[in-house]
Amino acid sequence: MSATTRLTAHDALPLTCTRAGTCCHGKEVWLNPWELACLAAARGVAADDFRTQHTEPGGIRLRFAGAPGWNGLPACSQYDPARGCVAHAGRPLACRLYPLGRERRGARVTYLHEGRRFPCLAGCPQVVDLPRLRVADYLAGQDVAPGEAVQDAYLEVMQDLADGALVLVIDGGLAAAGDAQVLPRWRALATADDGQRAAAIPAAWLDLLTVPGLNADAPAAFVERHRELLQERAQLDFAGLRDASALREAAVLMLGLALHLGRSLGCATAPLAAGWIATAAEHGAVA
């Protein structure tokens, strides 16, 4: 694991942007559904069109396939060498935070950056000639609060989806019957790449997960209504299932949705699935 430097709100760092665009090349930027909607709104296109044109398969990661720039790395799909970011008003949390990262453990949030040396020095050495900013002031200037609240709220939606999968396995009787099929399929979803996992999710469900068709202007309302839409669809499709095969397919789908949403939040899928698999195994499902 690479070293990180943990920060306090009062630490002053060379955080004034040089607008050189080096950070818009060769990165991995995950997008939760609200962030995708914000980017689409900033570009004036429908969310499903933005997903098709500007994200990797599965709709949870920005596509970096532009002309090579700094260090020969490909540019973000939203980067224009003459203008910079063409979706700046709708940029996601990862871009607002950069070069900082955010770590949440329970209620405690810590900000950090990769390595011992400040990351921007490699691509933007001129940053040392610009004003230094306190971490707290930088975060306020980048307006990270809405994105952070959405990120945290979507972690709860992710757990709701996983809980739905567990209900199907445990309350549906699969675990008590010693089912040996569902957990290996959960594990396979956890180790699949994003495109493979997306392909395993029915198109209507993938659309509901990634492009729910909601207005992005009110972040909290967006996530809450999205949660309701997912719950309503699950209730409609899965309430009253009794057949073991149907229960198994539903449980695999719900777990796939949870993992795909988790990945959109930057989570590693294998550790997530391991915890949920362990819970199901404790109730009798064969891992």
Spell out the blueprint of helices and strands.
Elements: E1 4-7, E2 12-13, H1 33-43, H2 47-54, E3 79-80, E4 84-85, H3 93-97, E5 101-105, E6 108-114, H4 120-123, E7 133-134, H5 135-141, H6 145-170, H7 182-191, H8 194-199, H9 203-210, H10 219-238, H11 244-264, H12 269-282
Antiparallel strand pairs: 1-6, 2-7, 3-4, 5-6
Helix pairs in contact: 1-2, 6-10, 6-11, 7-11, 7-12
Key traits:
287 residues, mainly alpha, 2 domains, three-stranded antiparallel β-sheet, two-stranded antiparallel ribbon, 7 strands, 49% helix, elongated
Account of the protein in words:
With 287 residues, this protein is mainly alpha-helical. The protein folds into 2 domains: 4-144, no CATH class; 146-282, no CATH class. The protein is built from 12 helices and 7 strands. Strands 1-6-5 form a 3-stranded antiparallel sheet, with no helix packed on it. Strands 2-7 form a two-stranded antiparallel ribbon. Strand 3 (79-80) and strand 4 form a beta hairpin. The longest helix is centred in the middle third of the chain and has 26 residues, at 145-170. The protein is elongated and about 65 Å long. The two termini are 28 Å apart. The model has no long low-confidence stretch (mean pLDDT 96).
